[in-house]
Amino acid sequence: MSFAGRREITGFSNPTVKYLRSLRDKKHRKREGKFLAEGLRLLTDARECGRLPETLVMAKGRDPHALLTELEGAVEAHGGEIIETTADILTKITGKDNPQAVAGVFSEFDTSLSALDRSSADIWMVAQALRDPGNLGTMLRTCDAVGAGGLILIDDCADPFSVEAVRASMGAIFTQQVAQADWADFVTWLRAGDGQLVAASLRDAVPYRGAPYAGPCFILVGNESRGLPEEYEAECDLRVTMPMKGRADSLNAAVAGAVLAYEVLASLD
Amino acid sequence: MSFAGRREITGFSNPTVKYLRSLRDKKHRKREGKFLAEGLRLLTDARECGRLPETLVMAKGRDPHALLTELEGAVEAHGGEIIETTADILTKITGKDNPQAVAGVFSEFDTSLSALDRSSADIWMVAQALRDPGNLGTMLRTCDAVGAGGLILIDDCADPFSVEAVRASMGAIFTQQVAQADWADFVTWLRAGDGQLVAASLRDAVPYRGAPYAGPCFILVGNESRGLPEEYEAECDLRVTMPMKGRADSLNAAVAGAVLAYEVLASLD
User: Fold this and answer.
1) B142: domain range?
2) Shortest CB distance from B252 goes to which of A141, A209, A266?
3) A33-55 tens-digit pLDDT
4) Which helix (H) or strand (E) holds A168?
5) Please, what sign has the CA dihedral across residues B28, B252, B148, B125?
6) How much is the ipTM here?
7) pLDDT digits 0-9 by tens, B224-243
8) What secondary structure does DSSP assign to A138-161, as a single string?
9) Which of A114, B237, B257, B261 has the fewest CB atoms within 10 Å, i.e. is most exposed?
10) How far is A250 from chain B, CA to nearest CA, in Å?
């Protein structure tokens, strides 16, 4: 449902508005194989990574901006579609009270494990049953910061192409490789090549500072409420403990992953 | 609006239901000086820290649970109020589709800087204009994990007593000291005693690993979008850089604070 060229939409009941709005729902995203990214900064990041939206939706009467003009030109030059609409309709599409003045529609990427090139980076993050799209996007952002190759999503995770995850990734959805797999397939894939699987654990673990990390290092983080299943921890090549000085016995999943990832980065650098 | 004893509420229009529901709004929380915490785990954490709700709201027909029975007994013994209601009404109060079977009303704590005892810990976190209540709660959780004294909120931050912040803190709202102040008052307070102010920065900074941290160390984290104002960075005693290997030049605020806090912990331990 994408047409090259430029058009204007002024009616809330226009089918394209309904289509764009439907991409906020996972079911519709999966059926269409498309996702939404909002905001000039995010779309500029995407463009700099070589990813242009198939459809660019802009509010009429927006402030002119050189980056937006460049983006518009690039989308047109590549045969994409430009839609101009009202600020109210853009609000309806993005579901935010204070919408960005621009949104783009992208095709979802291939998220099969076989598409990952593990030799491309020394650090990978692996999340198991991560339910919060904000945590997922934050982990992608951390992956970018530590120079990781990407994020592997195990079992039933939040959708990396949700508006919330894309937003929290701050553009890293366009720079990082993302794969989705169940645990058995992941382990089979992992053991078919080089790779050290590491998790924070309270069982049979060594201090996380100075632990013998080795690249490519796969940092495994568990579900927000339940942590990692015991058999997943048992599969790890290295289990590390992080100090817990207070009452709680765990950190936020994205925080735990980041503290470990920075430790691995310092160790391998 | 709290009455010792036990009563049952079955009507949606009951004024107590409206009152409890109103505590989801900051304006009403501030007027009443009360906040809501949801879930048996959170309320049990609070009790173990010596904090009992003034009012305990429970769904009728809930599964029996020894911890809930203990909590109920403790609230009654301390002259608190017990309200039994329907699952539907509890859903209305908490605003969640899948509510916890129990919620409690607590009095907000004193959040003046003068109530902080800086000698009680070697690590403190300081957040400037932190807008996301989930990030705020996550920082409290990290404070607990690294044995920090608490979190100081500078300028216009999210409300630490919001339902989202309390939930993300995983109980740390009950263990950590929390203060609110504007920048000028904070600096005056800080410079009246010992304390090293540290921030992640790109200007005039040293690597964060092995930097000369000293306790009590105050780790300053800036706003999610804009980072720290330049004059706030200039006030810092130590500016550190963290590796940024990718396209982005910053981490999620709660993540950046946590990576720094674990580094400070390792350095001071």
Assistant:
1) 113-268
2) A141
3) 999 999 998 999 999 989 999 99
4) helix A163-168
5) negative
6) 0.92
7) 888 999 999 999 999 999 99
8) HHHHHHHHHT--EEEEESSPPPTT
9) A114
10) 8
